[in-house]
Amino acid sequence: MVIRILYNASIFIYGFLIRLGSLFNEKAKLFVKGRKNWKKELIKKVGSGTEYIWFHCASLGEFEQGRPVIEKVRSGYPDYKILLTFFSPSGYEIRKNYEGADVICYLPLDTSWNVKSFYNIIHPKKVFFIKYEFWFNYLTEAKRRNIPVYIISAIFRPEQWFFKKNFIGRWYQQALSKIEHFFIQNEDSGKLLSETGYTNFTVSGDTRFDRVAEIALKAKQIPLIEKFKDNKPLIVVGSSWPPDEEILIRYINQSEGVKFIIAPHEVSATNVSRVISAVNKQVELFSNLNGSDPSVYDVIIIDSVGLLSSLYKYSEIAYIGGGFGVGIHNILEAATFGMPVLFGPNYKKFKEANDLVGLNVAFPIQSYEDLEQNLNGFLADSERLHRVSVLAKNYVEQNKGAAKIILNRTFEL
C-alpha cells in the first residue's frame, strides 16, 4: 500500500517536472501540449458503439515492433477499430498520421483518475502493451474490468525490478500478475517468469523480424542514391551519435574508393551542420542532391527521417549507432538486407545483437582500431563479405513468424 502511494506520488511529481521542463525543452513541450484537454479530444475521436483493440508503444522503436501485429489485426478483424497510444513525442510526432490505426494519441499519465476516464471513453476489448511498458494503474484497472492485457515481444533480465528478492520487487511483481499472457522473445525470459511463479507465457520470438522482412520487400527505390553509389562499396551509418561519429569520420576522412551515408539520430540543423563540418571529403545533404550529380560526392548526410530502412538496400556494410551510449539502435533493419553490422560496445541487452555476434555476422567495436580492422577486412575480402551477408539474411528469415503466433493465441482461441 505504501509503495503504491509512493508510485502515484512519483507520477504526479513527474508530470509537474515535465510541465516545468516544457518552458525550456521542445520535447517536453510536445509531451505536455499533446496531453492538453486529452479527455475532450479523445471523446471527439472515438465513435459510440465502436469496439477497440488498444495498442500502446513507448516510442517509435516499440511501434515498429508492434506494427506487424497491428496490421494483422487490422486486416484479419475489420470489425474492430485500432487505438494506438504513445508515451514519447519521438514516437507520436512521427507516426501521428499512421493509416493503420483509427485513433492515435498520447497516453495520459498513469494516475488513477486519468486511467478510469481513459477506460470509460475507450472500453477496449483487448490491450497490447509492446515490450517494456508496465504502467501499474492501467494494468490494475484493466484487470478490475476483466479486459485482457497482453505483453508482446517482451524480454526480461535478472537485474529488472520484477525479479528482486525484496519488498520493492514483490510490489513490481504485482504488475506482472495483471497480465493475461506474455509473448516473450527467448527462453531465458521464460525461465525468469517461471521462477517468479508465472507460467502464462509463450516464447513467440520478436515481432521486429516480421517487420524488417516486410520492410525489405517494400524498400523504396531511391535513384539519387543509386547514382551516388556509382558501383562503389557503400557503408551506411544508421542512427549515429557523436561518439560513433568521432571514430567513423576519422575513418571516412582517411578512406579511398568507398562511399558513405550518415543518418544521424538527431537531424536538427545544428547537429547536421556539426557532422558536415567534421567531414573532409566531398559531402552533401540528401535534401540538396536534386539538380546535381550525386556521383561526385563521397559522403551523403541524411537530414530527414523515414529513409534509413530503405538506404540499407544499397549498402555492403552497416554501422549502427548508440553502442557508445545507452544501447544500440535497430540492427535488424540492416541485417535483413544481408550485410555485416558493426556497433559500439553497449549491446548486451539486445538478443538479436548477441545472436548475430555469435554467428560472426555482427561485430562490436571498442575503438577506432577495431573499426578500421573490421571495415578494411570486409572491403578487402569479397568472399567473406558475401558469406556473412548470406548468414545475416538467413538469420532474419528463420526468425519470422512471431506476429502470427500472437494472433493465434489472442484471437483464434
Shape: globular
CATH H level, superfamily name of the largest domain:
3-Deoxy-D-manno-octulosonic-acid transferase, N-terminal domain
Helix content percent band: 40-55%
CATH class of the largest domain: Alpha Beta
Strand content: 15-25%
- Determine the CATH topology of the largest domain: Rossmann fold
- Overall tally of structural domains: 2
**Helix/strand class:** alpha/beta
Number of helices: 19
Name a few traits of the molecule:
413 residues; alpha/beta; Rossmann fold; 2 domains; seven-stranded parallel beta sheet; 14 strands; 48% helix; globular
What's the arrangement of secondary structure elements?
Blueprint: H1 2-21, H2 26-34, H3 38-45, E1 52-57, H4 60-76, E2 81-86, H5 89-95, E3 103-106, H6 112-122, E4 126-130, H7 136-144, E5 149-154, H8 167-176, E6 181-184, H9 187-195, E7 201-203, H10 208-217, H11 223-229, E8 234-240, H12 242-254, E9 259-264, H13 269-278, E10 283-285, E11 299-301, H14 308-311, E12 317-320, H15 332-335, E13 341-343, H16 351-358, E14 362-364, H17 368-380, H18 382-398, H19 402-412
Parallel strand pairs: 1-2, 1-4, 2-3, 4-5, 5-6, 6-7, 8-9, 8-12, 9-11, 10-11, 12-13, 13-14
Helix pairs in contact: 4-10, 4-19, 6-7
Describe this structure in words.
- Strands 3-2-1-4-5-6-7 form a seven-stranded parallel beta sheet, with helices on both faces. A seven-stranded parallel beta sheet has the order 10-11-9-8-12-13-14.
- 48% of the residues lie in helices and 15% in strands.
- It is α/β, with parallel strands linked by helices and 413 residues long.
- It has helices at 2-21, 26-34, 38-45, 60-76, 89-95, 112-122, 136-144, 167-176, 187-195, 208-217, 223-229, 242-254, 269-278, 308-311, 332-335, 351-358, 368-380, 382-398, 402-412; strands at 52-57, 81-86, 103-106, 126-130, 149-154, 181-184, 201-203, 234-240, 259-264, 283-285, 299-301, 317-320, 341-343, 362-364.
- The mean pLDDT is 93.
- The chain contains 19 helices and 14 strands.
- The protein folds into two domains: 2-214 and 401-412, 3-Layer(aba) Sandwich (Rossmann fold); 220-398, 3-Layer(aba) Sandwich (Rossmann fold), CATH 3.40.50.2000.
